[in-house]
Amino acid sequence: LRSLRLWHDDKSYYERGDGDRTQGFLYLADGGWLARPSVELLTPPFTVDKHMRLVHEQLVHVRSGMLLAAALKRQFVMPRMLCLYDKWWAEHNGTIPVAVMDQPIQDCPMDHLLNLQYLDKHQQWLPRQHTFVDHDDMPTEVKASRVNV
Fold it and tell me: Alpha carbon 40 to chain centroid distance?
């Protein structure tokens, strides 16, 4: 809901970060997209193996970004990511039945890729969603604190 700008947090959500992340935010340049994955991974037929390879390829960069953000005392902002399969706890062919969703899934939700319940207990590691820096509720002075890498 945050990514769709339908959820509005209080001002503290947009402040410089939680815990020791007081220097601002770290956000990837190029509109937040990671380097594009290989064409082979994005060509049907889509399989669980392709999905896992695609996600792993991107998570390598996310882990590096999270560690860099920690070293710079900044809160990490997730990049825009792709995934092939929707997260659903029943057998399916990549998308939830009757859901209108194309594969690959653009702007894959964070909970499809990370264990947010675990990270919620460790707020300094919980990244902000990719729409964070462009959200209407983001204060101008906080937008100015971001660093693009």
Answer: 23
Q: In angstroms, rounded to a whole number, what is the distance separating the alpha carbons of residues 69 and 127? A: 10
pLDDT in tens, 122-134: 666 778 888 887 7
Indicate the range of 7-11, 79-83, 114-118, 128-132 predicted with least confidence: 7-11
Cα–Cα distance list, 114 to 56, 144, 148 (Å): 11, 28, 22
Kindly state the tokens that stand for 111. Answer: 């909970």
**Which residue in this structure is represented by tokens 């959820």?**
7
The candidate with the shortest Cα–Cα distance to 24, out of 67, 68, 72, is 72
Rounded to whole angstroms, how far apart are CA atoms 65 and 128? Answer: 12
Other residues' Cβ atoms within 10 Å of the Cβ of residue 54: 23
The Cα–Cα gap between 62 and 75 comes to 13
- Burial of 88-115, coded b for 16+ CB within 10 Å and e otherwise, reads eeeeeebbeeeeeeebbbebbbbebbbe
* Phi, psi of 96, deg, nearest 5: -65, 130
pLDDT tens readout for residues 31-63 = 556 667 788 888 888 888 898 898 888 888 888
pLDDT number for residue 7: 74
